[in-house]
Write a structure and sequence with these properties.
The protein is α+β, with helices and mostly antiparallel strands. The protein has two domains: 1-46; 55-183, Outer Surface Protein A, domain 3, CATH 3.90.930. It has one helix spanning 3-44, and strands spanning 55-59, 65-71, 77-82, 89-94, 100-105, 111-117, 123-128, 134-140, 144-150, 156-163, 168-173, 179-183. A twelve-stranded antiparallel sheet has the order 1-2-3-4-5-6-7-8-9-10-11-12, with no helix packed on it. A hairpin with a 5-residue loop joins strand 7 and strand 8. The protein is rod-shaped and about 130 Å long. The termini are far apart. The relative contact order is 0.05.
Length: 184
């Protein structure tokens, strides 16, 4: 090969290398621009003002349901949180008629503390033993409020009642369920 051919080839290689550099610079700028556009679009996305669903589920890292919030087929609204194994926790329900309740359950899933407001818009609270039997009840009624203590067989052992006109009554019951002492 003569010098002219080598020099021509050298010039062509240099032009190709310059063109290749421009293509690499252009491709890099294009990638940076596209990446910047994606980042700006992602940061500009704002959360929706409203979401709608019949039920939302809360799950832990293993995918186990730990809570839920939603509506039930007959129109009740509920909220619940449970322990790792799905037992125990809190459950609140509001039914279409306006009645509502809140239950706190133990690790065996038995409701131990119950609170509610009935159709008459009057509140009540109940405490149960480890078997789920009612042991303590507190209620407010239209004409009186009261406290009731039950035995293990759910029969009342003592009642304290305060009427709307501030009269107080106290009663103790025997195992047969009959009053053994009462005042007044």
């Amino acid at each position: 090969m003569d010098d002219a051919t080598v020099e021509g080839l050298t010039q062509r290689v240099e032009r190709l290398e310059r063109a290749n550099r421009w293509w690499r610079i252009g491709a890099t700028l294009l990638l940076v621009g596209v990446g910047a556009a994606f980042l700006m679009a992602a940061s500009a996305a704002k959360p929706p003002d409203e979401m709608a669903a019949k039920k939302f589920k809360l799950v832990d890292d293993q995918g186990n349901q730990r809570g839920a919030w939603g509506t039930q087929p007959k129109g009740a609204t509920f909220f619940e949180l449970t322990g790792r194994d799905g037992r125990g926790g809190i459950k609140a329900i509001v039914v279409p008629t306006g009645e509502m309740s809140l239950a706190l359950a133990d690790i065996n899933g038995r409701p131990r503390i119950l609170m509610g407001i009935g159709t008459n818009n009057l509140p009540a609270v109940g405490l149960t033993d480890e078997s789920g039997r009612p042991r303590v009840g507190i209620a407010v009624g239209p004409s009186a409020s009261g406290l009731r203590l039950n035995g293990g067989d759910e029969a009342p052992l003592a009642e304290l009642v305060v009427t709307k006109d501030d009269r107080v009554g106290l009663a103790f019951y025997g195992k047969s369920g009959k009053v053994v002492w009462k005042a007044p």
